[in-house]
Amino acid sequence: MVICMFGIEKMDIFYKHIRFLSFLVVSIFCQVPILFGQDINTDSLLLKALNEKDPRIALEQAKLGVQVAPEYLDFHLLLGRLYQMSGEIDSARYYLNYVIDNNSAYVEAFSYLSDMEVQQGDLPLALSYINDAIAYHPEEQSLYMKKMAILQLQEKLNEEQRFIESALAKFPNNSEFRQRLYLLETRNNSDRIGVNYSFTKFDRDGVGPWHLTGLQYIRERSWGTLIGRINYADRQSFGESISSGVQYELDSYVFTGRNGYTYLSGAYSNSIVFPKVRLGLTYFHNYTNGWESELGVRYVEMGGRNFRSGLLGIGKYIGSFWINGRSFIQNESSNYYPAFTLTSRYYFNTRFDYIQAIAGYGTSPDERATLNQFESRVAMDSYRAGLGYFRLWNKHILTGTQFTYNHQELLPGLIQNEFELFFMLQFKF
After folding, report:
1. How far apart (Å, rounded) are the C-alpha atoms in residues 164 and 185?
2. Contact 273, 372 (CB under 8 A)
3. What's the Cα-to-Cα distance from 340 to each of 300, 313, 409, 427, rounded to whole Å?
4. Which among 92, 129, 211, 252 could bridge 114 via Cys, Cβ 3.0 to 4.6 Å?
5. Is the omega angle on the peptide bond into residue 209 within 30 degrees of 0, that is, cis?
6. Is the pLDDT at 22 greater than 70, yes or no?
7. Residue 69: helix, strand or coil by DSSP?
8. In angstroms, rounded to a whole number, what is the distance separating the alpha carbons of residues 236 and 243?
9. Reported pTM
10. Which pLDDT tens digit goes with each residue over 225-273?
11. How far is CA 168 from its chain centroid?
12. pLDDT digits over 41-63, tens only?
């Protein structure tokens, strides 16, 4: 046993000497080209360092590359990146700044430095690196995205909005710029007062027209938006009013984080031409690449009946387009009724300037013009389509008009065609 153990120990010592000699030989061969002035294939060395999974070995290979070819800035860039990843910030700053000082064409060096300073909490320095990068590379869209992200972290909303407006002029198809600008514009301090009017005509004798008029005041602040409305409806038959009434409504959009906001709505009326009570709650969340989602509930009480609705929606900014799909599942007792709406907008300049197209199936509690017959329509088939145009004039006057056609089932086998014209006029101050 002792002999065996002794033999094993001698073998271990032997293998240790072999490993040491191997390391020494490799080291000598690595240094030979340097000592004798011969060239190393720097491209192969760089590629090997970039693909090396062990950061310690990659660091040694990058150092060797700097020693062999000090003018080859890719090695300095790689060293800066490796030091950044290992937390050696001062060394990372040295090598990345060395790259920029010798050749400003390296966009990655600016990006790495900016990201590193964001991680270190020095947002002004991070912003200065990105500003320099944009000055050298005005066509590099990713740099504008990084600047937008830094301005968000600094919570410089006005500066961020001005920057995104200029960036959109250069990159009009950037969906994230468009999405973010929409949110920022709603945070501006502004007030609006306006009126809207809907005229609905039917293809059946003795039915209609219906008139719906609304007076509204909209107050936008950095925390969100508050909207107060007074609506008046007049339902006619053969040119005579058969019922009319007033509804009082209060809506609010409240920002609940950098990428989310919540919609709250309540309305009351003691007239048969409106629901007695209407309540709504929706949470909206914005994601990267122009995506957004909404999840909400609705409650409608009218004619002694109660309806509860669940809402699920998803939207996407694609360049200057915004596309949104919404689905409602409405419930009364054990009955469920679906409704779907697809909305598409093409924006020109601000969030107030767009062409809108809609298509849908079913009756939802968010349709104002026909909400007075919600309890009788919700279980029936309906197909609708609409087209509208909205515009901001001279930064103060907002106008909008929309035409909507609805193919409505009233009873099995009884169909009614409806034609609605909507007009809006608001003054922004």
Report:
1. 11
2. yes
3. 18, 10, 16, 32
4. 129
5. yes
6. no
7. coil
8. 7
9. 0.76
10. 999 999 999 999 988 899 999 999 999 999 998 889 999 999 999 999 9
11. 15
12. 777 777 776 777 787 888 888 88
Distance CA 66, CA 73 (A): 8
User: Residue holding tokens 């409505």?
Assistant: 408
Query: E strand or H helix at 85, and its extent?
Result: helix 73-86
CA distance 254 to 225: 7
Rounded CA gap, 317 and 40, in Å? 50
Tell me the per-residue pLDDT of 309-328, one tens digit each, with 9 for 90 and over: 999 999 999 989 999 999 99
What's the confidence (pLDDT) of residue 336?
93
Sign for the pseudo-dihedral over CA of 133, 137, 138, 141 = negative
Q: Give the whole-angstrom CA distance, residue 99 versus residue 75.
A: 9
CB 296 within 8 A of CB 281: yes
What is the β-pairing status of strands 335-347 and 354-361? antiparallel
Q: At residue 73, what is the residue type?
A: L
At 19, the amino acid letter reads R
CA distance 228 to 226: 7
Round to whole Å and give the CA distance between 82 and 65: 14
Residue with tokens 């099995």: 412
pLDDT at residue 94, rounded to an integer: 94
Q: What's the gap between Cα 100 and its chain centre?
A: 33
Rounded Cα distance between 249 and 270, Å, is 13
Cβ(364)–Cβ(344) under 8 Å?
no
